[in-house]
Amino acid sequence: MKNISIFCFGFGQVAKNFISKIKSENFNINLSTTTRNETSKKIFDGVDYQSYQLNKYKYDENLIIKLREAEHILVSIPPQEGEDIVAKYFHKFMKTSKVKWITYLSSTSVYGDHNSEWVDENSEKKPTSLNGINRLKSENVWLSLKVKKNLPIQIFRLSGIYSNENNILTRLKLGNVKLINKKNHYFSRIHLEDISNILFESLSKFKSGEIYNLSDDNPSSSEEVTLYGAKILNIKNLKKIEVNEIESEILKKLYKDSKKVSNKKLKNYFNYDLKYPTYIEGLNYIRDNFI
Q1: What pLDDT is recorded for position 289?
Q2: For labelling alongside 207, which of 93, 121, 144, 241 has CA 20 to 30 A away?
Q3: What domains can be seen in the chain, in order of their start residue?
Q4: If we measure between CA atoms, which residue out of 184, 183, 138, 177 comes closest to residue 10?
Q5: Beta strand pairing status for 27-35 and 2-9?
Q6: Which of 241, 161, 164 is nearest to 199 (CA)?
Q7: Rg of the chain in Å (alpha carbons)
Q8: What's the predicted TM-score (pTM) here?
Q9: pLDDT for 69-98, tens place per residue?
């Protein structure tokens, strides 16, 4: 059995699914994570680990010991009030550690609005949301640490995540989905399992300083995906509203940007075939196995 030592700053759905993927590949995992709550011992998917307190105001200094032991560091904590607290407080300990793989999870919101055109990793970054602005700022901080401190850093820009638990089919069954009418408006998305698979591939095929988009092959409108979900669940007569009738402030902000996110660089470098290349395969699998 192979051994891996990994420190996860943040332990949300992506980090947890990634750990499950590593375990499924017969690794013995030495895992440490962070939490906003008090430090405690926990178990996830049969893996015993220590979860150390970390928030904008304080952290458990014992985590530094584990951080220095880690060969792999996953950073999924979003910026806190415009500041990347992981880079700020802990980069100096990473330099003195055994680390050979640092992955920062960013967002395709850094691209902003591209009028429904394709974007790749070299496209202009012109974020319109506070989240996108802060994510781009954090990316630049991490890339500067790669240059100045010679830290082994890669960045993944994630598109909208859906999973077997959180998806349009679940929301449709709850009856709280409306069709939103906005012509020629595109979102990109990625299934959680494909994110974990790609993260796993990068453990053995790592190139410091690189940025990759994580998205599926088929950017689509929200209306298209919702209608397909309703079709396979045999749900009819969904209410349709115009984009200017959206009440949720978060949803309003999402509809400010339209772009198609290219995944060519990622697929070519990792030689990876997506398990769910479009929402059709993803939603069909969810319906057949979880609904």
Answers
A1: 97
A2: 93
A3: 2-163+191-219+261-276 (3.40.50.720)
A4: 138
A5: parallel
A6: 161
A7: 20
A8: 0.97
A9: 999 999 999 998 889 999 999 999 998 779
pLDDT value for 207: 97
State which amino acid sits at residue 80: Q
CB contact at 8 A, 64 and 9: no
Tokens of 2: 């192979």
Distance of alpha carbon 54 from the chain centroid = 20
Secondary structure (3-state) at 75: strand
Is residue 256 pLDDT above 80, yes or no? yes
d(CA 249, CA 262): 27
**Maximum C-alpha span of the chain:** 60
C-alpha–C-alpha distance, residues 85 and 100, integer Å: 21
DSSP state string for 62-93: THHHHHHH-SEEEE-PPPBTTB-HHHHHHHHH
**85, 58 contact by CB (below 8 A):** no
Beta bridge partners of 180: 241
Q: Torsion over CA of 71, 77, 82 and 83, rounded to 10 degrees?
A: -30
* pLDDT value for 254: 86
Q: Mean pLDDT across the stretch 185-191?
A: 97
The pair of structure tokens assigned to 161 is 């995540």
Amino acid identity of residue 168, one-letter, is I
* Closest of 148, 143, 146, 5 to residue 67, by C-alpha: 5
> What CA–CA distance (Å, rounded) separates 60 from 51?
10
